[in-house]
Amino acid sequence: MKIDDDKYLRMTLNERVQHFLLLSSFIILVITGFWLKYPEAWWVRWITVLIGENAFNARSLIHRIAAVAMILTSVYHIIYLAASPRGRKLFIDFLPKRSDLTEFGNSMKYLFGNSAEKPRFGRFSYIEKMEYWAVVWGTVIMGATGFILWFKDYFFKYISNTGMEIASAIHFYEAILASLAILVWHFYFVFLNPDVYPVNKAWIRGYLTRQQLEHEHPKWLEEIENKEPVNLEPENNASEALSEIMIIEPKETKTETETETETETETNKDKADNKKNEPETSEIKSEEDNEPERKPVIKNNDEVSDSKNEDNV
Amino acid sequence: MEYRIKNIALGIISLCLFALMTIIASEYSGSKAKSTDDCLSCHEDKDLVMDSDGSKKSMFVNPELYKKSAHSIAECTDCHLNYKAEELPHSADKKLENCRTCHEDSKGLEKSVHAKTQCIDCHGSHYTKKVSELKNEGDANCMSCHKKKEIAKFSSTIHGKKGVKCNDCHGDGHNVKNISRNQITEMCGKCHSESKMNFKGSIHHTVFKGGGKKTPVCTDCHGVHNTISSKHSIQSEACLNCHLDEKMFPGTETGSAKFVEQYKTSIHASIKKGEMESAGCTDCHGDHMIDSPDDPASSTKRARLIETCGKCHADVVANFKKSKHGVELLKNNEKAPTCSDCHGEHSIKSALLSDGASKLVMADKCLDCHKDGKIPHKNFKGEEELITGYKNSVHYQALVEGNESAPTCSDCHGAHEMELAENPDSKISKKNIANTCGQSDCHGKQLTNFEGSIHEKGVNAGNQDAPTCNNCHGNHGIVSKDLENKLQKSRDLIQLCTNCHESVEMIERNELPTKVSETYKESFHGLATRGGLKEAANCESCHGYHNVRPSSDSLSTIHKNNLPQTCGNCHPGATEILITSKIHLTDLKEDSPWVFWITRFYIILIFGLIGFMLLHNIQDYRKKKKSNAKNEN
Questions:
Q1: How does pLDDT run across B381-395, given as a tens digit for each residue?
Q2: So what's the ipTM on this one?
């Protein structure tokens, strides 16, 4: 959605808050996680200097708090995807499509082959979709194995020490994979990418510039320009929604998430692993069911936020 | 008539009386007695007395004894000169005639101590004895004049009982002598030749010859006439008489009166055998041959001390001679200690009376010499351990705090039988040290736990690599388990175990399980300990400490059946802990193929995916830079 001549809404405040919760919990999890695995690392010593001798005792607690925060954010995100029209549109736009394969192939040809034609991407390129689904995948895997390791005394009798070994191996390697992916993939597109260097501020400001859209999402820009001229109403609506969210949403999200966690934890206990997949898949179904409500989708100049992820431009 | 008769009778009687009196008077005054018989006619009266200076002196002469005496041939008047029969007393001049008008051969009498003594004092007057008779009479004659108590006891002394007579020392007949201090040694030596020889080599004699006036000769210790043979009294009265005199032996140094006085507090003086000290001066110093400790021949010379003490303490000295201390001492190593270096000299105390304080004293004593000593092997941290480290140990601290059963040096090293650890018989040798630590209920429980452990089996099999008490706990600097810093303790413990269980050499030599240390350090337990979690399990949490046993041993804490309990110590919620594979995954592919393949999968995934991402982004970067450059142009 076009806010004004040079501002195109990419992430609503709600989505930015989700993203912020995700990134902060993710960073804390990475630090407190590798802190355990590499207790003698130089940066661990700095933490010890900063926090104090007993920093390590707080480490596991912080890790768990961050983990819970991330799971709650994820749960909220699922609700967001299911419950709001914008969320449903967002989910649909994130779903992999056949065109993504073509785009990927073209991109490969452009990057590594002889093709001089730069592929033109829509709202979400294969780059962002990879990013998004990697986070979904990672959260599920890390959440499940982390949960087993957290409640080891309970799980011991079901999965034996071998199971614990497997869980901790997966947790570790998945952590490396996720961290490297964020570092190499996401950070490149958000920071080093010459189109946005030094930083794509969409995750802070919520909008992209026209130039950025031209470079990164030309198809989407086309869509926006072609569909409807810039309408002030949606903008107003959007800004109203934004202001509402700004004031009310954080609290609401919390209460919602809390209630959610209660139900969630129940389901968690039943099936730690599948839990997340299930809601998501159900979401997908519901999304599909709701597809008729495509109006917002068509309009969808609206910003799309991948709560969990990065937005790249 | 009658009256006349009475008068006549009276008159006759009085006449007769008168006549008798006249006769008697004439007998005394007028007639001159010419023979002994004449004299005896009066002097045989037992009641005949004479006033002499107010007391009545008997004038009785027993005629029979007189006639038996050597002088029976002599007339009274031969000796009683200036005799006037008519006078009473017969002679105003009481002086008897010199016996030597007759006995001209009694030479040398003037030179003897008896020069002023009357002949009759010894030989008697009227009943003069022959020399042979005098000899038979023995000392009684001397004693009749020499009535001092000290002399009077002579007959009850050893000399008196064995028939030694006055003249044996003082000389015969008229040559009776006083014996000067210079002569005494020789005099006694006539009979006591061995003692004399010994005495002549003694410090007492040496000083005496050098002019020491107060140095003792025989009689100073043994008494003169009242000779003492009892050991007890010699020591208390003889030696200490002089040696406790601060004027004679001033100062506080060795040899001073104060130094000797310490003896009174010693075990040797306090424990008595009957009346006697269990060990008196002479028992150690010798009697006649007593010498300065500096004299090589002296019984108290350092090198000879073990013989001297060994007279009584034979077992102890036999042990000592075998000990390292003893061996070195016998090699004349000047640094090696002898009895007195540890036990002291006069102030020697019994080890049986030892208390906490004396244990501390002992530690100081040992450390006096061993202050720079190092323990031959390094501790588990690879640090050199000093012998003086004992003072930082929990043992020493306990002693200081008043726990009297806490050990001092000898409790572990033994006292006299002390040996280097290399000696298999030593109390601190590899094989014996566990028993030493577990002795007399010091650490008996721990010893019981240790027995049967894999480590103990190794030690008993003579494996020098196998650890016993000190390899883990340290030697002298042994510290308490209740370290404040639990985490540090945990880390130390891991280092301790890994010293051996990480060493390739040790593992190969003893066929120890491999990689236990690496796998532990990578496990959650190990990571948490490395990170600083106090509660995380370390080696001993699972394996125990004293009773470390292999998992095949049913008593082992890590035996399959015991694992739930062992793990349950920390994971109480885990009512049934399922152990389906090894804990230390030393060979991932074999021990836990799942983990192995998952790891493989992820490594490939990470390298493949991230590699692709890198390439993709590098190309992306280049292309964008290029097109940007074009656009700018």
A1: 777 888 888 888 889
A2: 0.73
